[in-house]
Structures are given as structure tokens and as C-alpha cells.
Amino acid sequence: MDKENVKILDQRNAYSGYFRIDAYRLTYRRFDGEWSQPQNYELFERGHGVAVLPYDPHTDQLVLVEQFRMGALASENPWLIEIVAGVVEEGESHEDVAHREAHEEANCTLLALEAIAKVYVSPGGSSETTQIYCAKVNSSSISSDIAGLDEEGENIRVHTVSYAEAMSALASGKVCSAPAVIALQWLQLNKARIQAQWC
């Protein structure tokens, strides 16, 4: 089915701050062909994102970042080990964002990009999508282990780790952010091809 099978009866803004929440009342076509009863939904609007796994195929090292995450505050440790990520600003391509965020968050320059997947982050209540990439980097050129933009309140620790260390962190659950999990699992399946392509 497609959007033609949804009738929006009412739409209004319920909250506007750094993020936005819109309230909808709608009906949609059921799998039996009938229309559903009117339903109320709230949609979290925060734009779209890009996430990048920087990988050095020559040294078999990855660049991961660690930072405070408000969404993880309810867990034991709100400082998450993740991959580079950022929001797409108006007029930017996904590739533009990948390069900008790699520089801002990990002090690294991307030498090549390989698209992994474009995914819905939480489609039950958010329109956000994230385009995930693997990127070729020279891990020896990373200038500092602390990064981030002060004006955005960022304080990011940069970790250059071996492939084995990254996979151990993935297996233990230490890496638990969805884009990072997807990217690392993708690298498990594609490492030989990527090394042959980038070396």
C-alpha cells in the first residue's frame, strides 16, 4: 500500500522547540480493504540524519566516538560509544553532512564513502531517517582524541580501536546505538571486499 491509502482528517502542531511534535487524526485502509476507525497519532519531527563509520583498511582500525546522550539518561551510562553522526541542514547532501560531521566529531578527513543503508530510526512515532555510510580514513592523521563544537555543547572523545576491539564492544553490548550496530554488522559482512577496494 502507499500514501493514497491514508486520509488525514486533522493536522496541527502540538509542540515546537528544538524539536517539533505534530498531532494527526487520520484513517487508513486496513488489509481487509476497509477503512480504519479514526486514530490519533503524534509525530516527532527532528529532521533527518547521517551516520558514518570511519574505517582505515590499511591498519584495520575504526574510529568511534563517545559522548553524553540525553536519550540514554535512563540507563546506567548515558555516555554512548557510537559512530559519527549529524543532522542534515537545509541545502546539504548526505555526503556533505558525512564529511562535515567526521571533521567536527572525530577530527578526521573522509577519503571515500560507501553507502550502507537508509533506515527509519523509530517509525512508530518519528519521521526521521538516517543514511548510514562506511568511510575510508587514515587513522594516523587524527589530530586529537577530544572533538566537538563548543557552540553546540559537544564534548566528544575520539576512540581509534582495532577491528577486534570494535567487534568485542559490539558483541558485549557496549555499542548499543542502532546506526553503530548496523554499520559494524555491515563491516563484518563486507570487510574483505572493502579492504580489497580501498587498499
Give the key terms.
199 residues, alpha+beta, Nucleoside Triphosphate Pyrophosphohydrolase, 2 domains, 8-stranded mixed β-sheet, 3-stranded antiparallel β-sheet, 22% helix, elongated
- Molecular shape: elongated
Helix content: 10-25%
How is the main sheet built? 8 strands, mixed
DSSP helical segment count:
3
Uncertain runs = none
Number of strand segments: 11
CATH architecture of the largest domain: Alpha-Beta Complex
Structural domain count: 2
* Cα-atom radius of gyration: 19 Å
Under CATH, the topology of the largest domain is which? Nucleoside Triphosphate Pyrophosphohydrolase
Classification by helices and strands = alpha+beta
Structural features, described:
The protein has two domains: 3-45, no CATH class; 49-198, Nucleoside Triphosphate Pyrophosphohydrolase. The protein contains three helices and eleven strands, in the order E-E-E-E-E-E-E-H-E-E-E-E-H-H. The longest helix is centred in the C-terminal third of the chain and has 21 residues, at 178-198. The chain has 199 residues and is an alpha+beta fold. The mean pLDDT is 94. A hairpin with an 8-residue loop joins strand 10 and strand 11.
